[in-house]
TrEMBL record:
Binds 1 NAD(+) per subunit. The gene is ahcY. This is Adenosylhomocysteinase. Keywords: Cytoplasm, Hydrolase, NAD, One-carbon metabolism. Its cofactor is NAD(+). It comes from Pyrinomonas methylaliphatogenes. GO terms for cellular component: cytosol. It is found in: Cytoplasm. The lineage of its organism: Bacteria, Pseudomonadati, Acidobacteriota, Blastocatellia, Blastocatellales. Belongs to the adenosylhomocysteinase family. SUPFAM superfamilies: Formate/glycerate dehydrogenase catalytic domain-like, NAD(P)-binding Rossmann-fold domains.
Length: 422
C-alpha cells in the first residue's frame, strides 16, 4: 500500500460495493478498461489526477491503472469526496489517494503539492488548480509534463488565460468541450444532481416555488429544464445576449439578478464567474431565500459580503444548511454547502451513466496525449471528433440502440457541390 490520506480505511468494503454498483452503469468506460488491460497504452506513466473522489472517478482511476499508469488521486473540492470510495481505492486497488470530505483549504493545497511530488507526466485536472500551481510554483517540473486534460468549463477558462499569457507550454485537452461530455454531463448530469443536492439538503418542495438560475450555459439549461419539470417557476439571469434570447425562446423569464433577487425562493449559480450573487442582491431577498452554487469554485456567491451583512455567525440548521440573519431587516438567508458544489456537497454528484461518457473521454484523452507526445503544440486542444463519435457509438451499443448509416450515394452527395434541385 502506497502513501495516502483518507478518513477511515474501515469504510473500504462499503466503498467497494458502491464502486461496483456505479460500474454497472458505465459500460463505455468498462470497454475502454478492458482494451487498456490488454494493450497497456499507459505502461509506466505517472499521472496526477485532481477530481471529485466519487464512485465514478474510482472507475476512471481503475481504467488508468488497467492501462499501466501509476496514479495519484487528490480531491478537486474540499466537500466533494466520498470517504468510503477514497478508502476503497487505497485498500482494494492500492491507489495513492489524498482526499477527505470537509478537508481545509490548507489541506487541499497541501494535497495539490503532494500530487506534484509524484512528478506527473500527465495531469488530469478539474478546475486547473494543479496546472496553475505547477506553472506558478513548480516550474522546474514543467519539462516532465506531456500534457493535461481538463474536465470543467472553469478550468478551460483558466487554461486559455494561461495560453494567452504564454505560460502554458504543453498541450491541454479540453475534455469538457467534447460533445459527449458537455452536451450530456453538463446538461443532464448537472441538471439532475443539482436539484438532488438541494432536495437532500433541505427537503423542500420545488413545485410552485420561483427558482432563479444564474447562467444559461449547458449546466444552466440542464438545471432549468429539471426545475421546470418539477413544477418550479424558473427565472434566468444572463450577461450573454445570445444565451438570454435562447432562454426566452425556451419559455423562461429573463431579467437582471438585481430584479430577480426580490422574486426568487431558490437561487442557483452556474456561471463559472465570481460574485454573481453579491451584497446588493442579498439585501433584496425574501425571508428564507435559499442560495446555492453548482459552479466549480466557491466564488460565485459573495459569502464574505453576506457575513458582513449578517448580525452574527450563521447557524447550522441541517447538514450543509446554514442560516444567516441580516442585521438590517431580520430576514434569513439560507446558504447550502458553504457555497461549494451543492450536487457533490449534499448529494453524490452526477449519475454514473452520464459520467460513463465523460470519463471515457478522459481515459481516451490521456491515451491521445501519450500517442501524440511531442506532436501537439502547446495550448488548448479539442479532443478529435472521431474519438467523440466512437464514445457516442459505444454508448448507443451499450443501450441496444441502432441508428442508420449513410449509403455510398448519400456520402457522395454530401461531398459534392454539383447536385442541386432534382
Amino acid at each position: 500500500m502506497k502513501g495516502y490520506e483518507v478518513k477511515d480505511l474501515s469504510l473500504a468494503p462499503h466503498g467497494r460495493q458502491r464502486i461496483d454498483w456505479a460500474d454497472r452503469e458505465m459500460p463505455v468506460l468498462r470497454l475502454v478498461r478492458e482494451r487498456f488491460a490488454d494493450e497497456k497504452p499507459l505502461a509506466g506513466l505517472r499521472i496526477a489526477a485532481c477530481a471529485h473522489v466519487t464512485t465514478e472517478t474510482a472507475n476512471l482511476v481503475r481504467t488508468l491503472q488497467a492501462g499501466g499508469a501509476e496514479t495519484v488521486l487528490i480531491a478537486s473540492n474540499p466537500l466533494s469526496t466520498q470517504d468510503d470510495v477514497a478508502a476503497a481505492l487505497v485498500a482494494e486497488w492500492g491507489v495513492s489517494v489524498y482526499a477527505i470530505k470537509g478537508e481545509s483549504t490548507e489541506t487541499y493545497r497541501n494535497h495539490v503539492h503532494i500530487a506534484l511530488d509524484h512528478r506527473p507526466q500527465i495531469i488530469i485536472d478539474d478546475g486547473s488548480d494543479v496546472v496553475a500551481t505547477l506553472v506558478k510554483e513548480r516550474r522546474a517540473q514543467i519539462g516532465e509534463v506531456i500534457g493535461t486534460t481538463e474536465e470543467t468549463t472553469t478550468g478551460i477558462i483558466r487554461l486559455k488565460a494561461m495560453e494567452r499569457t504564454g505560460v502554458l507550454t504543453f498541450p491541454a485537452i479540453a475534455v469538457n468541450n467534447a460533445q459527449t461530455k458537455h452536451l450530456f454531463d453538463n446538461r443532464y448530469g448537472t441538471g439532475q444532481s443539482t436539484l438532488d443536492g438541494i432536495i437532500r439538503a433541505t427537503n423542500i418542495l420545488l413545485a410552485g416555488r420561483t427558482v432563479v438560475i444564474a447562467g444559461y450555459g449547458w449546466c444552466g439549461k440542464g438545471v432549468a429544464m429539471r426545475a421546470r419539470g418539477m413544477g418550479a417557476n424558473v427565472i434566468i439571469t444572463e450577461v450573454n445576449p445570445i444565451k438570454a434570447v435562447e432562454a426566452v425562446m425556451d419559455g423562461f423569464r429573463v431579467m437582471p439578478m438585481i430584479e430577480a433577487a426580490s422574486c426568487g425562493d431558490v437561487f442557483i449559480t452556474v456561471t463559472g464567474n465570481r460574485h454573481v450573487i453579491d451584497r446588493e442582491h442579498f439585501a433584496r431577498m425574501k425571508d428564507g431565500a435559499v442560495v446555492c452554487n453548482s459552479g466549480h469554485f466557491d466564488v460565485e456567491i459573495n459569502l464574505r459580503a453576506l457575513r458582513e451583512l449578517a448580525e452574527s455567525d450563521p447557524i447550522t440548521v441541517r447538514p450543509f444548511v446554514e442560516e444567516y440573519r441580516l442585521r438590517a431587516n431580520g430576514r434569513r438567508i439560507i446558504v447550502l454547502g458553504e457555497g461549494r458544489l451543492i450536487n457533490l456537497a449534499a448529494a453524490e454528484g452526477h449519475p454514473a451513466s452520464v459520467m460513463d461518457m465523460s470519463f471515457a473521454n478522459q481515459a481516451l484523452a490521456v491515451e491521445y496525449l501519450v500517442k501524440h507526445k511531442g506532436e501537439l503544440s502547446p495550448g488548448v486542444h479539442t479532443l478529435p471528433a472521431e474519438v467523440d463519435t466512437e464514445i457516442a457509438s459505444l454508448k448507443l451499443r451499450s443501450l441496444g440502440i441502432e441508428i442508420d448509416r449513410l449509403t455510398p450515394e448519400q456520402i457522395e452527395y454530401l461531398s459534392s457541390w454539383e447536385a442541386g434541385t432534382a
